[in-house]
């Protein structure tokens, strides 16, 4: 059955002047509030299109190479769904560490091979800076889907979009980030995006998982109010956003240290009784024990709506980079 082009896209063809055309998306540092407004506006159109007709042929004939050196469920599948919803095709490569890497092939050679077949490459890699290395060698656009403990720009974009959609604004909010702030690349990227706004930041973690000092220094340089805590109960009553992260076992070399801190925070209905009636709980997922399943029934639990927003943001980015938004 042929897909139908959404009427809302009639004016969106071959846009090479959107500021994103053929650009790599490596870091949230590339974004300012004007670019955020643009991508969020396109994401809204993508949401309406999906809800109304399901798919469009905006990227028909285009091919995405989904290159994942680390396991992924949400990011990998949402990029695939985003490309397919827009009429494009996907080369899914989720076992690359068992194929080309075991044969000794370098990341630059893998990327240069894939761009022979694809129009755009999405890369997840365990090493910080890997996305930039790939972009330096590739002639096709590269989107960073997470580089070790470095950045995860598309996750931060969908997180910020979720806050905007759920609360209606970003300026003036108090945002708490809870859990693994040292290794959590989602926290690192979201902190940098939030620093573009008039917000107050609250960081809650065990001592060994505190936010890296360079990020604290960036927040200070922006002049934003912030505080650091070890007890989430101290802050939950005052925040508008509670952004919870899991303690990432895969980032620990010392298993005993992981065991010591893995369950340091658990968000429960009892804890949320102290929270504002108008606030949201977010999580980039997957969760382990840090949010109880009973919280899912709370209307303030936004993490699955957050996941849905991920597809719309990634649809917007793919369309913008390929000149169709």
Structural notes for this entry:
The protein is an alpha/beta fold and 325 residues long. The protein has ten helices and nine strands. The strands form two sheets. Strands 7-6-5-8-9 form a five-stranded parallel sheet, covered by helices on one side. The N terminus is likely disordered.
In round numbers, the mean pLDDT is 90
Helix fraction bin = 25-40%
SS field, number of helical segments: 10
Q: Quote the beta fraction.
A: 5-15%
Query: How many extended strands?
Result: 9
CATH topology of the largest domain: Rossmann fold
Largest beta sheet: what is the strand line-up? 7-6-5-8-9
Task: Catalogue the unreliable spans.
Answer: 1-11
- Order of H and E elements: HEHEHEHEHEHEHEEHHEH
Radius of gyration: 20 Å
Specify the overall morphology: globular
Number of domains: 2
CATH H-level homologous superfamily name of the largest domain: Aspartate/ornithine carbamoyltransferase
Q: What distance lies between the first and last C-alpha atoms, to the nearest angstrom?
A: 25 Å
């Amino acid at each position: 059955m042929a897909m139908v082009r959404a009427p809302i896209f009639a004016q969106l063809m071959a846009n090479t002047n959107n500021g994103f055309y053929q650009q790599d998306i490596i870091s949230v540092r590339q974004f300012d509030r004007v670019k955020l407004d643009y991508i969020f506006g396109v994401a809204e159109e993508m949401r309406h299109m999906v809800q109304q007709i399901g798919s469009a042929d905006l990227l028909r004939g285009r091919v995405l190479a989904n290159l994942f050196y680390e396991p992924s469920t949400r990011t990998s599948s949402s990029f695939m769904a985003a490309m397919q919803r827009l009429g494009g095709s996907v080369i899914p490569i989720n076992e690359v560490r068992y194929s080309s890497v075991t044969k000794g092939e370098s990341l630059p050679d893998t990327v240069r091979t894939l761009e022979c077949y694809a129009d755009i490459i999405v890369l997840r890699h365990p090493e910080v800076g890997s996305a930039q290395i790939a972009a330096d060698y590739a002639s096709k656009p590269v989107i960073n889907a997470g580089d070790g403990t470095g950045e995860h720009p598309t996750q931060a974009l969908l997180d910020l979009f979720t806050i905007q959609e759920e609360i209606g604004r970003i300026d003036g909010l108090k945002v708490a980030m809870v859990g693994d702030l040292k290794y959590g690349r989602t926290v690192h990227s979201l902190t940098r995006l939030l620093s573009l706004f008039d917000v107050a930041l609250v960081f809650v973690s065990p001592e060994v998982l505190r936010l890296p000092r360079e990020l604290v220094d960036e927040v200070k340089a922006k002049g934003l109010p912030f505080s650091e805590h070890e007890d989430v109960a101290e802050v939950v009553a005052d925040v508008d956003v509670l952004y919870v992260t899991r303690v990432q076992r895969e980032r620990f070399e010392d298993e005993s240290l992981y065991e010591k801190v893995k369950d340091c925070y658990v968000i429960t209905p009892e804890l949320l009784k102290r929270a504002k009636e108008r606030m949201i709980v977010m999580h980039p997922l997957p969760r382990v024990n840090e949010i109880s399943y009973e919280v899912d029934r709370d209307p303030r639990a936004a993490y699955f709506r957050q996941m849905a927003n991920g597809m719309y943001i990634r649809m917007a980015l793919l369309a913008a980079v390929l000149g169709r938004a």
